[in-house]
Amino acid sequence: MLASILASGLAVGAVYALIGITYNTMYLTSRVMSFTAGQLGMLGGVFGSLFVLRLGLPVLPGLLATLLACALVGVVTEVVAVRPVLKSLDQHLYVLSTLAVALLIQHATALEWSTEPQPFPRLLGLGAGIWDEKYWLPVAACIATIIGLEYLYRRTLVGRAFVAIAEDNFAARALGLPERNLRIASYALAGAVGALAGFAGGQLLLAFFANGPLLNFYGFIPVALGGLGNNRGAVIGGFLLGLFQQAANFMVGGIFSSVAVFTLFIIVLLIRPQGMFGAPAARRV
């Protein structure tokens, strides 16, 4: 039973961590918390089932098609819901604009796909029991993503431009960095990361339109716990959340496990409002 809790907790936590990274990636260049992150994870499962199961594509081409489709959704989100808000004096309108796009995606998926959970194919056919691929694929995807992003941000010119925009977008613009193009690229990258979360975790979550709001909430908790913009903190927070949630499911079950997650979340934020790994906000006066 302990092994089952560990396996399922790490797998679900990896999905939550990837959604948290999706939040951070969009926030990096726009300072906007886009509430379409969970919908991108949901679309990863839906597109994966569509391309691999219904259309019969091999796994790798199906994965690439899923990543491209969700990257396009990320770009559309930036153009429709984020860019107009950044031009407005009241930039907090992004809460409404991104929520509107998220609801549009969810209802369009329900109409065009299905309102019932649809099966997701086995991808590699490897493992059994607690070593089944549905448990270790999300973990492997999460590890590969964080390593890839660390390399991107630290070793490439594009990644350093992302970091420059994140630290001071006014100075970055003054140096001639193409802020708009970098923001579009970051939203495309976030779409791909969200798609990978849904694709790798599809065997656990299935292809279900209602996964979007669930992933939106549980994917935001690792961001809050790990510190906004901190991908490594989001990964640690995601794994801790997954393990705690699965242990609570085993011990109390049902809705009480969600109450336990809410309680832990509130306690952590009361103790450390900036998150476990976030730095306190400082303002020069």
TrEMBL record:
The keyword Membrane applies. Belongs to the binding-protein-dependent transport system permease family. LivHM subfamily. The lineage of its organism: Bacteria, Pseudomonadati, Pseudomonadota, Alphaproteobacteria, Acetobacterales. This is Branched-chain amino acid ABC transporter permease. Keywords: Amino-acid transport, Cell membrane, Membrane, Transmembrane, Transmembrane helix, Transport. It holds the Pfam family BPD_transp_2. It is found in: Cell membrane. InterPro entries: ABC_transp_permease, BCAA_transport_permease. It comes from Belnapia mucosa. It comes from the Bacteria. Its main location: membrane.
